[in-house]
Amino acid sequence: MTExxxxxxxxxxxxxxxxxxxxxxxxxxxxxxxxxxxxxxEGLYESFYMIADLHSITVRQEPKNLRKNTMDLLALxxxxxxxxxxxxxxxxxxxxxxxxxxxVLTCNTYMGELSRMTQFKDKSRKHENNINAGLFTYPSLMxxxxxxxxxDLVPVGExxxxxxxxxxxxxxxxxxxxxxxxKIPEAYTPKVGAxxxxxxxxxxxxxxxxPNENSYILLLDPIDKAVKKIKRAVTDxxxxxxxxEGKDGVMNLMSIYSAATNKSFDEIELEFEGKGYxxxxxxxxxxxxxxxxxxxERYNDLMxxxxxxxxxxxxxxxxxxxxxxxxxxxxxxxxxxxxP
Length: 340
Ligand code: ATP
Ligand code: LTN
What we know:
There is one protein chain. With 340 residues, the protein is mainly alpha-helical. It has two domains: 12-193 and 306-335, 3-Layer(aba) Sandwich (Rossmann fold), CATH 3.40.50.620; 213-300, Tyrosyl-Transfer RNA Synthetase. It has 13 helices and five strands. The strands form two sheets. The chain has a three-stranded parallel sheet. It has a two-stranded parallel ribbon with strand order 4-5. The two termini are 25 Å apart. L-tryptophanamide binds at residues 15-19, 52, 55, 142, 145-146, 154, 156, 160, 163.
């Protein structure tokens, strides 16, 4: 018999998360956070936004920095426009159900599936001295995050699509083995900016853990610093703002400009016809500054009000754990655990 999975809610559900593994980049904003805000404004979904602190310790974290990055991220979520009154913004470690479901899913995930994950391969290469079991089983925890909330949609950057595919496979596997339990979620990636590239090597994704700080723009970079980084961005010798072979650097700046101004690539090519990279970079820098400034102002205000932030994460955890625990008890019952 098919059960009503989403119970009494009509609205479709969203779940997404970002790790507090460092300061957020423009890539995180364009690929993920900005879309959280747009989707919330559409008002068609019931959403759950999570700061994935449990995931972040798959890479070594300094405790003091982890605490700061976690609070910073909460403030940045709100500064970017998410309204915690509408939808909860919670810390993953505050809801034990994530780990409890993750164990059940881990026992239904094959080693071969986890070995194929590109993020695992990338991160193992980057952290040769700490290839821990958590880094390997990371996707089963991510699947638990999503499936606990019966999410229909998961807004993420392109790099997370493979994890989403695995989540769908795990949900189907569980549903077939036991009975209909989980919604099958879909990834939602933006049309422009699903992968913002490094400003220094446009074949690599812009990443907050890149050792070269000129390769990324942080949401909290002082504006003059962000402007300088754009001016230094790698381009090519053609001095022509258009799409084309070998023009990865220019196309990346076009994506950034497009994301910041909502102009299409055709419009951008037209706007800069006959102009050089100096003019183009100045325009990109101005658009980025225009995007960052209000976020930074709101962030600074929020950081002065720690009591408010505490209230947000506590209330959010209460709201989210109600939903999460409902799914978890269903799963525990189906697996055959005796009710406590
Ligand atoms: P790290 O550099 O530590 O691996 P990260 O910058 O990739 O981390 P995550 O916390 O893994 O950050 O990602 C948060 C969200 O931002 C995810 O949805 C991810 O897909 C998205 N994202 C990350 N980098 C980019 C990028 N360069 N372009 C577009 N989206 C991105
Ligand atoms: N793996 C993601 C962060 C993350 C996430 C999630 C995203 C953890 N759990 C659930 C969406 C849904 C990342 O590294 N970007």
